[in-house]
Write a structure and sequence with these properties.
Shape: globular
Number of domains: 1
Number of strands: 2
Order of helices and strands: HHHHHHHHHHEEH
Strand order of the largest sheet: 1-2
Radius of gyration: 22 Å
Structural class: mainly alpha
Distance between the termini: 41 Å
Strand content: under 5%
Number of helices: 11
Helix content: 55-70%
Length: 287
């Protein structure tokens, strides 16, 4: 994106507006989605019924997370004279992670692959929920839990254990792996792998002859660097000011956000969202 108003390139302000508009279009499509009873998504939903979750729920939760972060990014860019030096990059990181997770589930080559990926997603969800409950139980007053609430939390924790075991059984029945899956081995796909797969499934990221999987992964790694306060990620935004102090060897550095880099990364994440929403719409239609 160019900020100089050149005729062949949009301004960053136009980029902000386009981001907002395209995010709004995807939200409208997603919120208006209807799943046909004879569709593949409906069958995947039914498969997951024993753990009281649906395939549709998993994917839409991820996509709404991604779109909400991109919507907030567009708003924050439009309502500030210049970008924040760090924070907006981390918003894009969450959007790419969530969108990639959705597309990873949707891009299974057949029903079994979609379902095993959904089972893995829900295993991670159940594990993190159980971990949260364990932490709450250590100091329940932080959550203002009454004794009755604590009893319910214990019951919910037990249910999560039962569902994790059932989920692993379903995975073993589905694929019959040798050796069989366990809670540890079923959780086999890292965020890095999901992002790479999602990038590979988004052909538009490969314009100019670039590898789309590597393109998305590299973008996500940079955003992750900001999210984890890694100095290397922030180096391009550092701007020296004044002269180097001859005594200390120090120089004043100002950290600035880059609207062009933010837009490039945001639109890459949005391309993944658009690919995922398109897949979801297709799989939700009657054959």
């Amino acid at each position: 994106m160019s900020a100089n108003g050149a005729a062949d390139e949009p301004t960053v302000e136009q980029g902000y507006e386009r981001l907002k508009t395209r995010v709004g279009t995807q939200l409208e499509t997603l919120l208006g989605l209807e799943v046909a009873q004879t569709s593949e998504v409906a069958a995947d939903n039914q498969y997951l019924h024993p753990i009281y979750r649906t395939f549709q729920q998993a994917v839409i939760e991820c996509l709404l997370t991604a779109l909400d972060h991109l919507r907030f990014l567009a708003w924050s860019l439009q309502n500030r004279n210049e970008p924040f030096p760090y924070a907006q990059f981390t918003v894009i990181r969450t959007a790419i992670t969530a969108a990639s997770t959705a597309l990873w589930m949707l891009s299974g080559s057949n029903a079994d692959e979609r379902r095993i990926r959904a089972l893995e997603f829900y295993l991670k969800d159940f594990k993190s929920n159980a971990s949260w409950i364990d932490t709450v139980k250590k100091q329940p007053q932080l959550q203002n839990l009454s004794p009755a609430d604590q009893i319910r939390a214990d019951a919910e924790r037990a249910v999560l254990d039962t569902r994790q075991d059932l989920l692993v059984q379903m995975a073993n029945s589905l694929l019959n792996p040798q050796p069989p899956f366990t809670r540890q081995t079923l959780e086999r796909t890292s965020d890095t792998k999901m992002v790479t797969i999602a990038g590979s499934e988004t052909a538009a990221l490969g314009s100019g002859g670039f590898d789309p999987g590597v393109t998305l992964l590299n973008t996500w790694q940079t955003m992750s660097g900001y999210a984890r306060a890694r100095p290397w990620a922030a180096l391009p935004g550092k701007h020296p000011e004044g002269e180097i102090d001859p005594v200390t060897g120090m120089q004043k550095i100002t950290q600035k956000g880059d609207p062009h880099a933010l837009l490039d990364a945001a639109f890459r994440g949005l391309l993944v969202v658009e690919q995922a929403v398109g897949r979801l719409v297709g799989l939700s239609a009657a054959p």
